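Morning. Coffee machine broken again, so started the prediction first thing and wrote up yesterday's gels while waiting. Chain of 171 residues, entered below exactly as on the submission form.
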Amino acid sequence: ESKGVYKAGKKDGLWLMYSENGQLSSTQYFKDGEWNGPYFLYYENGQLWFTATYKDGESDGPAVTYYESGQLESKGVFKAGELDGPFASYYENGQLKNKGTHKDGKEDGPWVYYHNNGQLRWKGTYKDGWEDGPWVRYYDNGQLKFKGAYKDGMKNGPWARYKEDGTADID
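Came back before lunch.
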């Protein structure tokens, strides 16, 4: 079920959407039939799931997602419908999962990824959505697993692989 107002045959202003059990499932604002303004989605238990701001039908500004428990899942910034700016996501235990920057919807610049125990998992740089430059990967015990470099998303140059005990892993 949904409740809202039409203006000249198009959704306009505040619209409330409800699930079959009567629970509020979303709060949306429209202008001339397009999303425009704050947007909220809710889990069936009423907990906030997603919040963003829309402009002329596209996400524009900060956006945040939450786990059903209420724990923060991710936060980023949109510009004209694409991720553009700082981004971070989290495990349900609150531990940082990854963080970096998007530009025009693609990963760009330094990124780090973590295991759910907080240990560094990956570290490297993206350029226009492709891995580019030195990258390292670690086991969840903190021991180095791989190291090497990428160029335009392809492995480039020497790569080294290590066992979990830190010794070289040679095929």
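The longest strand covers residues 10-18. Going to sketch it on the whiteboard this afternoon.
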